[in-house]
Amino acid sequence: MLTNYYQSNEAIFTSPASARLYAEDRRKRGTFFEIEELPALVFDMEKFSLVVVHLNETPPFRRWAWPTSFGQSILKGIDVLRAFSSRYYRQFPSGWAREEGDPAVITGLVDFRMLATASGQHDYWLERSSVESDGWMTFHRVRSRRITITHLERITEELNAALQERSHGDRPTP
Description:
Elements (H helix, E strand, L loop, with lengths): L1 E2 L8 E2 L2 H10 L8 E4 L3 E4 L4 E6 L22 H8 L20 E6 L11 E10 L5 E11 L2 H18 L7
Antiparallel strand pairs: 1-2, 1-3, 3-7, 4-5, 5-6, 7-8
């Protein structure tokens, strides 16, 4: 996933092209933009997908654990949002431990048809903008790093197991 740290609206982009276009539209003299690709959890909803990106911690989602409050009830979109969002973690039961502090998490709804998936280890990159002599803004890759997504895979397995058990009427045991 691609994130925008400094604009509160449009914080998640689903492609490098959409992030670059957003930056170009907001470009002013003397500014530059950085676009960083990051791993994310994606929950398919009826018309959109809920995307959760954990920032500033490697590996991402290491501190997230299955909320005991999920019990046997059917998981709804708001339950998933509350379980992962840093906005709700002090008000509702969530997967983030309160004593470890506020997690840096961005959540957003996106058109699910625009998402790509990956598994295992992957190289994630950071691009920085510059303005060429002809006035066009271009982006250059300044860093690439390998991020392990084992915790995202663990969460996906736990949620899939819980959903399968709930559909059979069993109590989930992630």
